[in-house]
Amino acid sequence: MLFCIAGDLELSGKIHLLDHYKPKTGVTELSVDIVSYKQLWDSKAGSQADALIAVDGSSDESIVQSNGQFTARQVSAALDIQAGDHVLELGCGVARIGRELAPICAHWTGVDISGKMIERAGERLTHQDNVSLHRLDRSSLEMLPDNSIDKAYSIAVMCHMDKEDLYLYLEELHRVLKPAGMIFVETWNLAHPVGWKRWEYEVRNWSRSDQGVRKDVSRNQFCSPDEFELYQRQAGFEVIRSFSNSPWIQSIATLSTEADWLEQQARRIESSKTAIAYSVLFGEMFEKTIAVIYGVIHPREAIAFCNQHRGTAETDLYRPFILGLWRGNPEQWGEVE
Length: 337
Ligand SMILES: C[S@@+](CC[C@H](N)C(=O)[O-])C[C@H]1O[C@@H](n2cnc3c(N)ncnc32)[C@H](O)[C@@H]1O
Prior knowledge:
Elements: H1 3-6, H2 17-21, H3 37-43, H4 48-56, H5 61-79, E1 86-90, H6 98-101, E2 107-112, H7 115-124, E3 131-135, E4 149-154, H8 163-176, E5 177-189, H9 193-206, E6 222-223, H10 225-234, E7 238-243, E8 248-254, H11 259-271, H12 273-276, H13 280-293, H14 299-308, H15 313-328, H16 330-333
Parallel strand pairs: 1-2, 1-4, 2-3, 4-5, 5-6
Antiparallel strand pairs: 5-8, 7-8
The protein binds S-adenosylmethionine.
Residues 1, 3-4, 37, 41, 55, 91-93, 96-97, 112-114, 117, 136, 139, 155-157, 160-161, 165, 218 line the site of S-adenosylmethionine (SAM).
């Protein structure tokens, strides 16, 4: 998910963000040659290493696995994943999360708009025999029958699509979910100060584009918590709980309207909230990371912040990413110290 931080970080790790962030008027130097979700994500998944970087910011399999375990713990706590569950991931990428969840559920299905990502996921799942993968042609889960999935989730995907497609997918998730099933979905939180900062970066970035040409369809998009919950409710879901005290909105929703069951789930989620919601420290590390990317601070400052929080899962996630950025851009920041 760290890929979403940088937005237009190139696969080499090279960035040119200092002047990207400076507002420019009347400039149209940002060319947009991406015409579809599939084209963009296929172009990022030509090799296993490139695909790992596209979903996680690192080509190191052990880092991707450890980050996958972090997110899998959040998903499992949010959805209360059980051994008998059929679990679906929308936008599974390289199965960063699915690889960690498949061993603890009955069946894991991954779907993605990118055939290349699906190929890469297959390569990482050869040891699992309880998984299925499908390439999507459009914002539809037509290959999956109604009422067939116990739990479904989508991480770092809905923030990369038009709101119309986000809503179509919610309707489809509603169709394929069993009545007491649950979904765990997330997107960028425009109402959080750091989420707003991240959005402002998009504003400055896209202000350089040709206003007569459609913007990249896969660019980062943002919601307020109310808006994100509205889409879920209009698609037929009961939102059991949303967490929005971070740059992300994380929602757990269901089809059930049974009051006692909803109450029970709300209590379960409350008691697991530290395992589900992004922590304050996670948000602070994210803020430091975008400050590096925007050229506001040197990576050394962000690394010093990580070092103050050694031994935390948050540091394990962010430190390698920041060091990777620094290493990839010596002309900007000097060699890694
Ligand atoms: C940042 S990656 C996240 C992958 C995975 N969920 C994870 O957290 O590791 C985004 C994924 O969403 C997929 N994706 C993007 N737009 C999509 C769309 N419109 N429909 C389905 N999948 C999409 C991409 O192909 C890519 O694999």
